[in-house]
Specification:
This protein has helices at residues 30-36, 40-50, 54-57, 94-103, and strands at 6-7, 14-19, 63-70, 77-86, 119-120, 126-129, 134-138, 145-149, 160-162, 165-169, 174-178. It is α+β, with helices and mostly antiparallel strands and 179 residues long.
Amino acid sequence: CNSWPVVSPDGKSVIVPTGAFVGSPTAGETWIQQALHATREQIHNLSMALGDKELAFYHAQDKKAAVQAYDPKTGELQWSTELKPYGRYAARGDEEGYLQRDARHTRNQCLPAQFGAPTLSGDGKVYVGRADGLLYAVESGTGSFQTFDALAGFLHPGTSWAPGLMAVTTCDGLFVWEY
């Protein structure tokens, strides 16, 4: 997916989140309505009931993803942290709010990329939001990470930092932390 990389302060690593694009909410896909002989509302309810099993229902593979670091001179992989595969058709929050947004005649989906842009904190953690609605704090090279559930996919800019503050935007809101 098209997301921007981040370069470590020492210039020895280029960190890239990798993963396939997510799709539009199934409630808006005419071909699915026709194939299942169902209304948009029925497709929406089916999608919500299936949750992380939605792609399997449509005989599609889950969206795999990883945060990886490469040597900028050689292109050699330095480390990779595999994340849980994402089993939904659309980004988190897009299907949930699709019918309401469509009824208001506003943009009915956000359609974010699999990842927003990663950022590095002073302690070397990689912060990156994903279409699964989770903000990841990945420990460089260890394979471990923590998450914050924002309930919606993330926009491209990634996290922003100021003295004592971190902020990030999702398709549905803004989160700010004091530390």
